[in-house]
Amino acid sequence: MKKFAVLALLVWGTWAQAQAPAATPSSPAKKELVTKVLALQQGAIEQVAQAVVERPALQMMQQASLALQTRVAPDKREAIAKKIQEDLNKYAADVGPKAREQAVKLGPSTIGVLLDEKFTEAELKELIGIMESPVNRKFAQMAPEFQKALAEKLVAQSKASVDPKVKALEQAIVMHLDLPAPAPAKPASQLLGAPKK
C-alpha cells in the first residue's frame, strides 16, 4: 500500500508540473532593460570580482606579517616584506583583470537572470532612472571621500583603545602557538628613514 501511495504521489507531482504554466519568456524590451542595468552596474560587478581576488591575498598578507614579526630576524624583515609585496602585486596584476572580465561575462547569466525574474519592465525603467540620475552619480562619486573621512576619524578616535587590544591579541596568539615573543617594534622615525643621531 505504501509503494502505491508513493507512486501515486510521484505521478501526481509529475502531472502537476506538466500542467503548471511555463515561465513566460521575456520581451526584447525587458531584455534590453536588463542589459542596460548590467552595463550601469559594471563597476560594481568588477568590484565584487576584485574583492574575491584580494581576499586570499589579504589573508596571506596577514599571515606573512605575523610570521615576519615572530619568525624572521629584524634585520631581514624589510627585504622579505618587499619580496612578499612584489609577489602579491604580481598576483593582483595577473589575476585581477581576468577575474573582472569573467565577472562581467557572468553578469547576464547570474544578476541578469535575477533582474529578469524579480523586476517588471516598469521597475527596471524606474531603477535605470534612479541609477542615471545626476544626484545618484554625484553621490556615488563621493563614496571614496566619504570612506576616507570616516576611516580617518575612526582610526584617530579608536587608536588608543584598539592598539593595546591588538597587542594583547598578538601576544595571546604567539603564546598559543608557542612562538618566541615578537621583537619590539622600531619607532616610526626609524622606519621612515629619519637620520640617526
Task: Explain what you see.
This protein is mainly α. The protein has two domains: 26-133, no CATH class; 142-178. Helices cover 84% and strands 0% of the residues. The protein has helices at 2-19, 28-40, 42-71, 74-118, 121-132, 134-141, 143-177, 188-191. The longest helix has 45 residues, at 74-118. The chain is elongated. The termini are far apart.
What attributes characterize this protein structure?
197 residues, disordered N terminus, disordered C terminus
Write the layout of secondary structure elements.
Blueprint: H1 2-19, H2 28-40, H3 42-71, H4 74-118, H5 121-132, H6 134-141, H7 143-177, H8 188-191
Helix pairs in contact: 2-4, 2-5, 3-4
Count every helix, treating DSSP H or I runs of 4 or more residues as helices. Answer: 8
Report the span from N to C terminus. 95 Å
Write down the domain tally: 2
Percent in helix: over 70%
N-to-C SSE string, H for helix and E for strand: HHHHHHHH
Please provide the count of β strands: 0
Mean pLDDT: 80
Shape: elongated
Which parts are unreliable, with pLDDT below 50 for 5 consecutive residues or more?
1-23, 187-197
Q: By helix and strand content, what is the structural category?
A: mainly alpha
The amount of beta strand, in percent, is under 5%
Radius of gyration: 27 Å
Main sheet? none
What's the quick description here?
The chain is mainly α and 197 residues long.
